[in-house]
Write a structure and sequence with these properties.
The protein is about 10% helix and about 35% strand. It is mainly β. It has one domain: Type IV secretion system, VirB10/TraB/TrbI (Lipocalin). It has a 6-stranded antiparallel beta barrel. Strands 1-6-7 form a 3-stranded mixed beta sheet, with no helix packed on it. It is elongated and about 50 Å long.
Length: about 220
């Protein structure tokens, strides 16, 4: 009888030790797998020059949220621009859907200066808000609504002359990332509603040829 009691007691001790070893293995030397969330893509520092596939959508539809890079046709400056001033730009790269060109490069995008604040003692840094309301594709015009989400220096496109920025001394800014690579924003930040503001107490200048990235606020059906 005493032998049986000793065996039961020994089994109990061994079980306790095993349990302790398992717990130690989990929180001690052998770590459990740790979930690492996927990292998002870093902000682009150059304008897109290659064909882009349209975001998932119905056939012939450019969905809300789709981004396009457009080349500014005329110079815009917060020092001289006026509210309701019209301007034009052209798409930089083809927008594709299932192997077909939905919006070809060179399509005209029209916009308007919806707000402007020149640099002065009150507003210190100049700013402009640009709205885009029409796209002409293969000779046919489509109403749209889009806003600016980024600005790139034109040197990012085949080393063309001209720089988007505010003059000497301004650093390149891309969503808080400093750098001097071609294609980066120079001295400009994008605020709420697509407002393009200078990072220094100067006017914001966008020379002809500057690249503006725009985002559609509503879907657009292309026929």
């Amino acid at each position: 009888m005493s032998a049986v009691i000793r065996i039961v007691a020994l089994a109990s001790i061994l079980g306790t030790v095993a349990c302790g070893a398992t717990t130690s293995g989990t929180s001690g030397g052998t770590s459990a797998p740790v979930y690492v969330p996927p990292t998002s893509r870093a902000p682009s520092t150059t304008a897109n020059t290659t064909p882009t596939e349209v975001n998932n959508s119905a056939y012939g539809v450019v969905p809300a949220g789709q981004e396009l890079d457009v080349r500014l046709g005329t110079t815009l400056s917060s020092k001289t621009a006026k509210v309701e001033q019209r301007f034009e730009a052209t798409t930089v790269a083809d927008l594709m859907q299932n192997g077909n060109v939905l919006i070809p490069a060179g399509s005209t995008v029209r916009g308007v200066v919806s707000a402007v604040d020149p640099a002065d003692r009150i507003h210190r840094a100049g700013s402009m808000t640009l709205s885009f309301d029409e796209v002409t594709i293969r000779g046919r015009s489509y109403p749209t609504r889009a806003m600016a989400t980024n600005v790139f220096e034109s040197g990012g496109i085949r080393d063309e002359a001209g720089t988007a920025g505010i003059g000497a001394g301004a650093g390149a800014v891309v969503g808080g990332l400093l750098g001097g690579v071609k294609g980066a924003i120079l001295g400009a930040v994008i605020g709420a509603g697509g407002a393009i503001a200078a990072t220094e107490g100067k006017d914001i200048d966008l020379p002809a040829g500057s690249i503006i990235r725009i985002r559609l606020d509503q879907p657009m059906t292309v026929r």
